[in-house]
Amino acid sequence: MLQKKVLILIILAVIINFVFPSLSLTDIYKYVDREGILHLTNVPTDVDARYVLVLKEENVRSDSGPDAKLYDHLIIKAANKYNVDSALIKAIIKTESNFNPRAISPKGAQGLMQIMPATASYMEIQDSLHPENNIEGGVRYLRYLLNLFKGDLTLALAAYNAGEGAVARHNNSIPPYQETQIYIQRVLKHFKKYSNYNGKDGR
């Protein structure tokens, strides 16, 4: 019965991709929680869940769409202020929220850069769902992580996803979380797409 439900949902996702390409989905993962409830997501967020890839992204959503360029002026502003590559910021936004400023994760991360409430408080972000506030705070936090890990982009991304404490607990290395490893791969993939990324320090 569960497999039948998954098949139906996959078929619906494929139909949406075909009929409404502007709403196209990225990779789709599933997991079943302890109560037997099926969860589907395009951004794995639960570090305790065992995700299974059920739908593979074939083509990345076109960057010529309005959503992809709508926040470029805010991205460039924050990039210049905090000396962070604008293509990296855009890659994180693409991965975190797919340019949806109202996105809220099951764990409470909010907005374009999916900022957790605790991080928002620490970064003094007044409204995480406000695009400019979200990007400003998210990039400020990213700059902090890049400095903390001495310019190591993969560790900064790991900390952005799993928390700096998780990276520290694993001897300043990428935590062995499937979600975090997938997250880093996706951000770097989008980063390369946006900038032909060859460097390491995110500047």
Textual characterization of the structure:
By secondary structure, the chain is mostly helical. The chain has two domains: 2-55, no CATH class; 66-195, Lysozyme (Orthogonal Bundle). The protein has helices at residues 2-19, 66-69, 72-82, 86-97, 117-122, 131-148, 153-162, 164-169, 178-195, and strands at 28-32, 38-41, 52-55. It has a three-stranded antiparallel β-sheet with strand order 2-1-3. It starts with a helix and ends in an 8-residue tail after the last helix. The model is unreliable at 14-25 and 58-66 (pLDDT under 50).
In summary, what is this structure?
This protein is about 50% helix and about 5% strand.
